[in-house]
Write a structure and sequence with these properties.
With 114 residues, this protein is an alpha+beta fold. The chain has a single domain, classed as Glutaredoxin (3-Layer(aba) Sandwich), CATH 3.40.30.10. Helices cover 51% and strands 14% of the residues. It has a four-stranded mixed beta sheet with strand order 2-1-3-4.
Length: 114
């Protein structure tokens, strides 16, 4: 069984979970914002995926950051920001046990999971 992490109200999360359901793929959903697991999971996720992929710079939370917070982003600063503001983590994060798939793309899901 796979684990999919994200924020329940996110439209992209809904699309990803709908895709998994349609294809009969079992998964466990964890709302990382409510569960408070970002700090404990980010080191592993950043080792398995580029931090630039994990950091959501398109969302509302990124726009709410100050100019100083958005300046000079490196891996350490990105991790600190995503820990402080879990909404900055791109959604969904799908852990297959061997691979980490960040974001939702039906073709990528099909390649990895079917």
């Amino acid at each position: 069984m796979f684990t999919i992490y994200g924020i329940k109200q996110c439209d992209t999360m809904k699309k990803a979970m709908h895709w998994l359901d349609e294809h009969g793929i079992a998964y466990t959903f964890i709302d990382y914002k409510k569960a408070g697991i970002a700090a404990s999971h980010l080191p592993d996720w950043m080792a398995r995926s580029d931090w630039k992929v994990l950091l959501n710079t398109r969302g509302l939370m990124w726009k709410k950051l100050t100019d100083a917070e958005r300046a000079d982003i490196d891996a350490a600063k990105a991790q600190a920001l995503m820990t402080q503001y879990p909404a900055l983590i791109k959604r969904p994060v799908l852990d297959t046990g061997t691979a980490l798939i960040v974001g939702f793309d039906p073709e990528r899901y099909a390649e990895a999971l079917l």
